[in-house]
Structure formats: structure tokens, C-alpha cells
Write a structure and sequence with these properties.
With 444 residues, this protein is α+β, with helices and mostly antiparallel strands. The protein contains 17 helices and ten strands. It has a five-stranded antiparallel sheet with strand order 1-2-3-4-5. It has a five-stranded antiparallel sheet with strand order 6-7-8-9-10, covered by helices on one side.
């Protein structure tokens, strides 16, 4: 793994206050003495991904995105020693010339018991904290750094307490993203649901804390540069974990509804999509998968009703799912959802608005959106091929040229199928194409 002197200095500079930092890059000829179990194998392995995954195997069902990033995006490993923290592992990732690193601390000497965090010991016996080496957040915090929300986290925020939550002094943050949110547990009331606390003061219930952390961290890491194209093997344990977790989520919905249920409903929906995505690889369970998809669609609509945010591609794909399921009412609801819940400044927003306008046969507004999309596509760089293929389909539909649409639709399918994606995203390209088919059917 190559790291520039400037990048090495930047990392060392972040820990100089800990005293005498020493950074050793793997593979090492021999591991330093006294390492936690499994660390020596990682630091001496020529290919760190396999050895790292063996260490992380105990949490692979709970953190599938993070563990897939360790399999496919991990660029290298280093051992960091300082006076204050004699042992820690640095996990390196990159995006072009920019380097990212996560720091894993030694396992907790005394494994914590934390109300609201299921199976906390599984992770904290691996690392007592796994956070950005640069910003010291964006991951499960070290137990010594679990802190109350009343202690200097966003002191200007005016908190909006849901029923049953009245004191910041009771909420301990176990995951912090300084720019946006914290995941917290109610330290004064064991057994309460974990909470997501937004910087703008909103507080809502979380359906599953590890799933929430996995989506925050793993989704980011999977967007970074690949180190290998190796695909993860089928994971029957993940299916069992989801079944067990979804049963518990359903049982606790009445409690979540009192705490503000938009985030909870959205997470419930996405975990059902995960479950259906895993089932889609098993032909005998295809009909069962559709049951998970129907339920996911319902929870997605309910999350929007409760004010949870979304993205333009996501609402477009759920619009397509509604048509696959023959649920015209949900399709109409999604096409009419307030844009402030899902829109941004991207070309995806324009294409989603154009899809909805064509479905409603609002050609006057659609014409302006066709021109707007053309201008934005000239500047697009990320996913440019897929975006242009999508726009060709929409242009053909705007001209009501069904013959041309069938050709552009086939081309879009080829592009989407070729895009690499994890198992839980396997169904989404079909939903996107289904959204276009719904428009074609309405125009016909």
C-alpha cells in the first residue's frame, strides 16, 4: 500500500498529543509482543483482507456493509503505538488521492453492558471503539468516550423531546457524527429503545442500533476505491439474524411510535428490503420474498407520512416497486410526496420529477424538466452512463415513442445489471425500470 509522506504526517499529527507515536505498516516480519488475539495474523499477512475478516467474523451478520468494505475496499493495515494507547490498528481506505483511515482500539478489558445495544459484547470484544483516525468520530465510540448529550455536544441545539424523554443527562451517545447525528441510549431507563438525536434537535426511535451504524459507516466505505472485486459469499446467518431482528422490531413498534416513528419505519423498511434481497437468490423462496417487499413498501410510505427523509432514486425505485406489486394507491402517494422530503440539487431529482410528471401526463412541466436534465447531464461525472441511459428512456417517453423506448429501456437494463452492487441492492435496478414501465403503460 502506498501512502505519501504528507498523508503519513497528517495521521501522526492527529495523535502527537498521545505521546511518541510510532506507525508500522503491514506486512511486518514479526508482530510486536503483547498484541490482542488475532492482531498478529493481520499485521503479518500479505493480504490483510482475509485475516481481517477472520477477526471480524463474530459481527459479520450485524455489520454486513462494513465487513464487505473490509473485504473489497481495505487498502492496507498499520500498527499504531503511542504512550497513551500502546496498541491500535489503523485500517486504510482511499478515494483517488485522498486517504481515509479508521482506528480500532484494543478489546475492552471489562466488556460493557449497555441497555438498548443488543449483543454489545460481540463488537467490543473485537475493538473498544472503531472510529475515524482523523475526526475521532463516525463509528462505535470507545466506552471511555461514551458521553452524555448534555456534555458539550451541539450546545446551541434546542432539543425537541419526544414523550418519555425529558433529560439530556439521561442520554449517552455511543456513536457520534459531529456534523449530523448521534445514536444514544437512555442510561437511566434500561431496556428503552435506542435513539437517533439529530443536530437540529429532533429525537426519534431507532429500530436496530447496529444496523443504523452499519448503514452510516458501511455505505460511506463502500463508495471508496476498491482494492479487490471479490464478492462476499452467501450468508445464511444473516438471514436468520434479520428474521429474528425484524420480529423484535414489529413487537416494539407501539413503543417507537410514541418516540417519533419516522426513522424507525424507514429502518424497518430497509431491513425488509435487505431480507428480500437475500431471498431473491433462492428461486424456491421468490413468492415469499414478495411478501417482504409488500411490507417494505408499506413501511416506506409510512416513514414519509411521519416526515422521514428519502432520496430521489429511492422514492423512484419504491414507486416502481408499487407498480410491480400492483399497488396503485401507494404509487399515487409516492408520486405526490412533498419534494422537501426527498429532493436535492442533483440530476436524479430532475429525472424523478420528470418520471412523476409523465406518469400524471403533465407535459408542460415535463418539457422544462427535459431541458433541465440535459443541462445537468453535461456536468455529471458520477454514474454518468447510468444517468444518460435513464435520460434516453425519459426522452423517448416524453416524445411518446414506444418503439424507441423499448430500445433505450433494454440498454438501461444492461447498464444497471453491469453495475456492481451488494446483495441487499440486487432488487433495486428492477424497481427503477418498473417505474419507467409504469409511465410507458400510462402513456400508451
Amino acid at each position: 500500500m502506498h501512502i505519501s509522506e504528507a498523508q503519513r504526517y497528517e495521521l501522526i499529527d492527529r495523535v502527537t498529543h498521545e505521546g511518541e507515536p510510532e506507525l508500522l505498516f503491514a506486512p511486518l516480519q514479526s508482530p510486536p509482543p503483547g498484541l490482542p488475539a488475532g492482531w498478529g495474523e493481520i499485521l503479518t499477512a500479505r493480504e490483510p483482507q482475509t485475516a481481517t475478516l477472520r477477526l471480524w467474523n463474530r459481527v459479520i451478520h450485524r455489520l454486513p456493509r462494513i465487513t464487505q468494505a473490509l473485504r473489497q475496499r481495505l487498502q492496507g493495515i498499520a500498527h499504531l503505538r503511542t504512550e497513551d494507547v500502546p496498541e491500535s490498528l489503523i485500517y486504510f481506505f482511499k478515494d483517488g488521492l485522498e486517504m481515509f483511515a479508521y482506528r480500532g482500539f484494543p478489546p475492552a478489558a471489562e466488556l460493557p453492558t449497555a441497555p438498548g445495544i443488543p449483543e454489545v459484547r460481540d463488537f467490543y470484544s473485537l475493538h473498544d471503539g472503531w472510529i475515524s483516525a482523523y475526526t475521532r468520530d463516525d463509528g462505535p465510540m470507545p466506552t471511555s468516550q461514551w458521553r452524555l448529550l448534555s456534555e458539550s455536544l451541539w450546545p446551541e441545539t434546542q432539543w425537541k423531546f419526544p414523550p418519555g424523554v425529558t433529560r439530556l443527562e439521561d442520554l449517552a451517545a455511543v456513536y457520534v457524527d459531529e456534523d449530523q447525528l448521534a445514536f444514544a441510549v437512555d442510561a437511566a431507563r434500561p431496556g428503552r429503545l435506542p435513539l437517533v438525536c439529530w443536530q437540529d434537535g429532533e429525537i426519534e426511535a431507532v429500530a436496530d442500533l447496529w444496523d443504523a451504524i452499519d448503514r452510516e459507516v458501511g455505505t460511506f466505505l463502500l463508495e471508496l476505491d476498491p482494492a479487490t472485486q471479490e464478492q462476499p459469499p452467501a450468508d445464511a446467518g444473516r438471514q436468520q439474524y434479520l428474521d429474528r431482528t425484524l420480529e423484535g422490531i414489529a413487537a416494539r413498534w407501539p413503543e417507537a411510535a410514541r418516540l417519533g416513528g419516522g426513522y424507525y419505519q424507514r429502518q424497518w423498511c430497509l431491513m425488509l428490503i435487505d431480507r428480500a434481497g437475500l431471498q431473491s437468490a433462492l428461486p424456491r423462496e421468490e413468492l415469499s420474498a414478495s411478501g417482504h417487499l409488500r411490507e417494505a413498501l408499506d413501511h416506506y410510505c409510512r416513514s414519509l407520512e411521519l416526515g422521514a427523509g428519502s432520496t430521489p432514486l429511492e422514492i423512484l425505485e419504491f414507486f416502481g416497486l408499487a407498480h410491480v406489486m400492483g399497488d396503485a394507491a401507494s404509487a399515487r402517494f409516492l408520486a405526490s410526496a412533498p419534494p422537501d422530503l426527498w429532493a436535492d440539487e442533483t440530476v436524479e431529482t430532475v429525472q424523478t420529477r420528470l418520471t412523476f410528471c409523465l406518469h400524471k401526463r403533465n407535459y408542460e412541466i415535463a418539457g422544462g424538466l427535459v431541458d433541465e436534465a440535459a443541462g445537468l447531464l453535461e456536468q455529471a461525472s458520477d454514474n454518468a452512463i447510468a444517468l444518460r441511459s435513464m435520460q434516453r428512456c425519459l426522452d423517448d417517453l416524453f416524445r411518446r415513442d414506444q418503439t424507441a423506448f423499448r430500445r433505450s429501456r433494454a440498454s438501461l437494463e444492461e447498464v444497471l445489471i453491469a453495475l456492481p452492487r451488494p446483495p441487499w441492492m440486487a432488487l433495486f435496478p428492477a424497481f427503477r425500470v418498473a417505474a419507467l414501465d409504469a409511465v410507458a403503460s400510462s402513456l400508451a
